[in-house]
Amino acid sequence: MSSLGAGVMADAGAPARALFAPEQLAAATGGRLSGAPAPITGISIDTRTLQAGDAFFAIAGEKADGHAFVEAALAAGAALCVVAREKAGAFAADARLLVVEDVLGALEDTGRAARARSAAGIVAVTGSVGKTTTKEALRLALAADGQTHASAASYNNHWGVPLSLARLPPEARYGVFEIGMNHPGEITPLVKMVRPQVAIVTTVEPVHIAQFSSIEEIADAKAEIFDGLEAGGTAVLNLDNPLFARLAAAARAKGVARIVTFGASEGADVRLTDVALQPFCSAAVVDVMGTSVTLKVGMPGRHIVQNMLAVLAAARLLGADLALCALALARLKPPPGRGVPIRLAVKGGQATLIDESYNANPASMRAAIDVLGRSPVGPRGRRIAVLGDMLELGEGADAHHAGLAGAIVADRIDQVFCCGPHMHALWQALPAERRGGYAVHATHLEPMVAAAIRGGDTVMVKGSNGSRMAPLVKSLSDRFRSGEDASLEG
Prior knowledge:
Blueprint: H1 22-29, E1 32-34, E2 42-44, E3 54-57, H2 70-75, E4 80-84, E5 97-100, H3 103-117, E6 121-126, H4 131-143, E7 148-150, H5 160-166, E8 174-178, H6 187-194, E9 198-201, H7 215-222, E10 234-238, H8 244-253, E11 258-263, E12 270-277, E13 282-288, E14 291-297, H9 302-317, H10 322-328, E15 340-346, E16 349-356, H11 362-374, E17 383-388, H12 397-402, H13 405-410, E18 415-419, H14 423-429, E19 435-439, H15 442-452, E20 458-462, H16 469-480
Parallel strand pairs: 2-3, 3-4, 4-5, 6-8, 6-9, 7-8, 9-10, 10-11, 11-12, 16-20, 17-18, 17-20, 18-19
Antiparallel strand pairs: 1-5, 12-13, 13-14, 15-16
Helix pairs in contact: 3-5, 4-9, 4-10, 15-16
């Protein structure tokens, strides 16, 4: 059970060494200890994944109140449970508790305490697209040089950031934190907890545009990441992005003395000089502030390579071994729902399903269509895109959807299946010979796609989480899953 509902998971494998003594946690939070708490080896907000020795923070979430799971946490071996003063009377007098005024506030205080004692090089990552992949690449690259701690999954919001920060081991050499937002003012308090020496903005695109009046306002919200940059810290910015000048001006206005640029543009400090895009990986040559680095990236797509430039920039700025970091990027694999290839056993042989169902916006949709266009097909095989609505695009949503038709044609996509009211605009804009099928809901689209797939096809599924494309992927996978290893990377 969980205080925040489904989808909340702890880091795999709690560290063997103690994160905090109970007295340290009490001092950090201003709380009162009761019972006989044990040394704290991990931090949890979810009893389903809690490990013995974890401190369980009983946060009140949207779906459940963590105080309902305190007894379960104690039974599972929690070192102590952090509970609100107003609810502490519900538990036994000898229960292992830390009683505080506000549990989420106590988690934030714990994160600040972990950061205050840390000597690690800290990187914070934000951006409209590519935050999680870039964070995972930084984790992989920096771990080749020293002990690295990073946010789990996409823990980038008001509880995910302090939770990730609270788990920062005192002996870590590097820390990597993802910071997200969908409205102005959200990043500032989070980055002020993290206090990075390096702040990366991957790119600025019309994502969550419904919450903003313009893409310039999105850039301004992303620029909040500079609010918490340590004195002498560095902003790492995408020189190829049209909003670069606005971000750079915001960084300078907030006292950032150094800006390092990345991209393919002339003059970039970390510049892509050559690239070879393959179906399941990429190779690149990069000039990293005067040092030429050749690397293989274990994920496909130019957009992935672009973000690896920011990774190399951060590694160089933190003093990591650049060669070791570059070699590690060959082991990068797509997170779930972000390009994982799956073998399907279908009529006429095997097909490939590319799971891009995690989320979607105009930039990531075009990137995924480009990857599909480069993907191999078998004899008489086709490239098929199965697309759900991109959400939170505001009044221009239909135009953003219809605008994908050009990419579909340019990248030689043979058939397109669409679902959702906004995707109907793309359906109407498509040439008739590329229309595979349309449905209002993903559940109604699945049988159309299942009937259409044949041996040799490569099928990519993508849409915003709310368009329910992930269940469509699972349904197709369950129906046609091959007995062979699903990994297709070469």
